[in-house]
Amino acid sequence: MCTSLSYQALDGSKFLARTMDFAFELNGRPTFLPREYQWVSSFDEKTYATDYAIIGTGAKFGKNYMIADGFNEYGLSGAELYFSHAAEYDAEPTDGAINLVAEEFLLWAIGNNKSIEDLKNNFKNVHLIDSDRGVMGVNQPLHFIFSDSTGATYILEPEGNDLILQEDKVGVMTNTPDYNWHKTT
Q: What sequence ranges are listed for the domain Choloylglycine hydrolase/NAAA C-terminal (predicted)?
């Protein structure tokens, strides 16, 4: 089971860490993507570009890199974790929105937002679409954790037509179940 956690070192530095346990080899490699890296959405073939450089764990599938976890040059970090039987995506694309499959969201999020505050202001422009055109050939059921250099940590989960962003007050997230379960004792 994948597990992520946010913590603070003795010197005050903030970190987001994770384990990756998957049923098959993803061939993930250290991956660097420069500012203005252009990528093509698997969903609708639109071209996007990152505003910020990214380093993380990635694998190339077709035209694109799938970033499973990483951080940008300003310290916004993120990870995608498996959310089986719980991820609910938009049935149809939304005009005027950034329509992506779930595996593309982390690349967009850390590539185009400097901080949690930026992400809070911008994530509503993105819709995750239920599609068989995923980066890996099928759309993966995912939820996400983000943290920045201030230590602010948030969870983002897809619930139908909405992406729900909430503060992570426990500093831990695993695969399924949803974040509300993580808050129970």
A: 2-184
The total of structural domains in the chain comes to 1
Mind giving me the DSSP string for 50-77?
Answer: -SS-EEEEEEEETTEEEEEEEEETTS-E
**Domain containing residue 13:** 3-182
Is the CB of residue 54 less than 8 Å from the CB of residue 70? yes
Strand order in the sheet with 142-147: 29-33, 54-61, 64-72, 77-82, 142-147, 153-159, 162-167
The reported pTM is: 0.94
Question: Which residues are the active-site residues?
Answer: 2
Identify the CATH number of the domain in which residue 164 sits. Answer: 3.60.60.10
Rounded distance between C-alpha atoms, residue 46 and residue 114, angstroms? 23
CA distances for 121 relative to 50, 53, 109, angstroms: 17, 20, 11
120-149 pLDDT, tens digit per residue, is 999 999 999 999 887 777 789 999 999 999
